[in-house]
Amino acid sequence: MSTVNPKYHQIERIDNWGVPLVDVDEAWEDFSEKFREAVASDEPGWHVIKSQTALGKTQALLEFLRDTPLRVLIAVPTNNLKREVCERAKKMEIEVVTSPSLHEIKDNIPDVVWDEIQALYDVGKSPMPRIEKAIAEDDVECAKVFKRYKRELSEFINSESHAITTHRRLTNMDVSKYDLVIVDEDIIYSTVIPSRETVSLLMLKKVRKKLAASDPLAAKIRRILKKVKDSEFFTLDEIDWRREYADIKMAVNIPALCSAAYFCYRAASKQENDLTEDSITFIKPVKFYANKYIMLSATADETICNLYFNEENVRFYNCKEAANTGNLNQCGDKSMGRSSIRKDPSIIKRIKRWTKFDYTISFKEFHKHYEGDLHFGNCAGCDMLKGQNIDVIGTPHQPEWIYKLFAYSLGYDVDDDLKPGTVVVHNGFRFRFMTYADETLRAIQFYMIESELEQAVGRARLLRCDCTVNLFSDFPLKQAELKESKYDTDENDEDSEST
């Protein structure tokens, strides 16, 4: 390996980096030992076990449920995974209940009713009054569906058995009746970071006009409008929600606005295309009730866990890493961010002609350029591409304000800016990348990009499956083999013409 700085769009492997890989059986034994250690520990707080995708965490979890005398709550990222784990538990004759979700029955109720429910969710209000109204009126189209939902909700709340829910429901949920909460996958990335609201300044002014000048919410809005004149990030105190706020008929999540403390001003002229007005985005507070939590994840990051949960509340277990059965090829000669692909979206079709792989995961906005249902942002836990060859195309950067707002909410300085061509060392590689000099901001940025890429690559289950994933990104992952891409060569053009 060269000792000089790498050229632009060049990734260099660092010799003898990291801990030697082991075989799958040894990795499994190591994970099992750490899981037993975490379960046996008397320490409350968060026990975070980082182990590879496809190692067998879900099966280990179900076997634990079958044998333990503890009452356990499991939280998974999505409703689909919730149902999948429930079915596997029932086949093993494990008594378990699942939390119901209105999103799972939306196709069984009229669109107009669902729109009303979604509107209530959007403004932070409970949909239960709308459900009760439909039942009381014996609405022929949805009363039966809602009665079943209420019955399942009551069973979930009152059950004495193990239970399965989603990450989203777990947040702000009283878990005191459970002896242990096991979180499958990284809840910080799936739920905590995306927990935010955006409101235009114009809408805030309209809300203020509906309030008395002495009202605490009116005063908070006035402070927001004053702060945005000279601050991009700012903090305000939480205020109590008042019953009269429920009568404000506007598309603003007022309960979240009342409880919010960390804000970011976003000018329409400087931000994403879908932001048409000057706005503020704020963190919706997430609360985890006191209990013992065990989080099982392939993407959890020790630094981020310590930052968010507080280091004294975290015990982190790094499991041994096994060599993949399959192959991960890294083509890093182009940045492959959204903006670069927007300039030349046909690059996706050229890649597909070259690799001849059937399956692709990339950005949702370029979906018309490839076939498949998966994209960055909806990959977690999906098993439909197990054992398949996949092209993962893109480096999933987030808008800079997302990195900074999360860092700001943790109490860190956010004055640093992204710098292109910064030489970094990560995952056993040296390469240039648009990132921060500030270590905390860089850790947050790398964590978010790597989590998304690992989720995408993980759909193939390379650890146990003999298949190949081609990763077209300038952000290298562990166990990647550096490959030269040839989709823009004359040879590839000739191949495409002859097919």
Number of domains: 3
For the termini, the CA-CA separation is 39 Å
| Uncertain stretches of 5 or more adjacent residues | 494-499
Approximate helicity band: 25-40%
Overview of the molecule:
- By secondary structure, this protein is of the alpha/beta class.
- Helix 9 packs antiparallel against helix 10 and helix 15 packs across helix 16.
- Helices cover 35% and strands 18% of the residues.
- The protein folds into 3 domains: 181 residues, Rossmann fold (3-Layer(aba) Sandwich); 137 residues, P-loop containing nucleotide triphosphate hydrolases (Rossmann fold, 3-Layer(aba) Sandwich), CATH 3.40.50.300; 88 residues, no CATH class.
- Strand 16 and strand 17 form a beta hairpin.
- 35% of the residues are buried.
Q: What is the secondary structure topology, with strand pairs?
A:
Layout: E1 11-13, H1 24-40, E2 45-50, H2 57-67, E3 72-76, H3 79-91, E4 96-98, H4 111-122, H5 128-136, H6 143-158, E5 162-166, H7 167-170, E6 180-184, H8 187-192, E7 196-200, H9 201-209, H10 216-227, E8 233-235, H11 254-259, E9 262-266, E10 279-283, E11 292-297, H12 302-309, E12 314-318, E13 327-331, H13 338-343, H14 347-355, E14 359-361, E15 390-393, H15 400-409, E16 419-426, E17 429-435, H16 439-458, E18 468-472, E19 481-482, H17 490-498
Parallel strand pairs: 2-11, 2-12, 3-5, 3-6, 4-5, 6-11, 13-18, 13-19, 14-15, 15-18
Antiparallel strand pairs: 1-17, 7-10, 8-9, 9-10, 16-17
